[in-house]
């Protein structure tokens, strides 16, 4: 299958690129520089240097694709990009896999695809875009990842200590985060392409929902772990980002397992922080 991929040089997208190539797909990625294009080619894909907001380039690449996977999701990108894909794919059986996010569901101890939507200010922009995607006649799947970890990167890297300087929690650290390894997440994107159905949402969650304090303690490596007030977290991280990280979220990822046959197998976030890719 010929797959058009955005965000191939990013954290999630680079893993999706590797997974698509490993499953035998031909991948064309739209990237912003020759350096990033070379990285795509080194991973087994083809690259076009351009901008994801360039409608003419996007329209041409979408026209030539059997499927589109969009991981370069951003407020400035998604309205125009999704409109171009939905117009091109309307009336066809070609799948479009879009990227959402777990923050969309707000505070919840049991997030599922049927949970009400209650996004924080940081990601409120996603709602109208996703509503348009879901209302189309295109075979769309919106993958909503939990807190993504693995390969020493992502949000959890903020809790990696050096044994000397303090590791600060977000608030008191009692909130839980639902998590997913970046390489397990990539396999779910591939399964969504293969499934090719109009699925709406699929929550990408490993089923591990540690507290932020547990996360910080796993990554501290001897550094002191220090709680702070909500106001202090907002001042340090910015109000919108802090409020998103202060959400209490738990999910099992049951639908992804039952409907897609997804089998996450990589180390948990706590394992990864304590004795894996985050060890410096």
Automatic annotation (TrEMBL):
Pfam name, any one: NAD_binding_10
Alphabetized InterPro entries for the sequence: NAD(P)-bd_dom (IPR016040), NAD(P)-bd_dom_sf (IPR036291), NAD(P)-dependent_oxidoreduct (IPR051783)
Every NAD(P)-binding domain range: 7-152
SUPFAM superfamilies the record matches: NAD(P)-binding Rossmann-fold domains (SSF51735)
Protein name per Swiss-Prot or TrEMBL: NAD(P)H-binding protein
Organism whose genome encodes this protein: Curtobacterium citri
């Amino acid at each position: 299958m010929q797959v058009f991929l955005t965000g191939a040089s990013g954290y999630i997208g680079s893993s999706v690129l590797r997974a698509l190539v490993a499953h035998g797909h031909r991948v064309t990625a739209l990237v912003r520089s020759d350096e990033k294009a070379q990285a795509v080619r080194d991973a087994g894909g083809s690259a076009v240097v351009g901008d994801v907001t360039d409608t003419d380039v996007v329209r041409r690449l979408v026209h030539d694709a059997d499927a589109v996977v969009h991981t370069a999701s951003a407020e400035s990108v998604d309205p125009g990009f999704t409109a171009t894909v939905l117009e091109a794919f309307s009336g066809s059986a070609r799948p479009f896999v879009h990227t959402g996010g777990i923050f969309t569901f707000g505070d919840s101890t049991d997030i599922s695809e049927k949970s009400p939507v209650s996004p924080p200010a940081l990601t409120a922009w996603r709602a109208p875009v996703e509503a348009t995607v879901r209302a189309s006649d295109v075979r769309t799947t919106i993958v909503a990842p939990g807190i993504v970890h693995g390969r020493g990167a992502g949000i959890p890297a903020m809790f990696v200590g050096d044994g000397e300087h303090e590791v600060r929690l977000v608030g008191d650290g009692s909130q839980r985060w639902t998590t997913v390894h970046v390489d397990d997440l990539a396999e779910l994107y591939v399964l969504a392409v293969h499934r090719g159905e109009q699925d709406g949402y699929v929550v990408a969650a490993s089923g591990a929902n540690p507290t932020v304090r547990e996360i910080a303690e796993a990554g501290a490596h001897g550094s002191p772990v220090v709680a702070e007030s909500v106001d202090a977290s907002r001042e340090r991280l910015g109000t919108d980002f802090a409020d998103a990280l202060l959400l209490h979220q738990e999910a099992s990822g049951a639908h992804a397992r039952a409907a897609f046959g997804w089998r996450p197998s990589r180390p948990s976030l706590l394992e990864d922080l304590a004795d894996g890719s985050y060890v410096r």
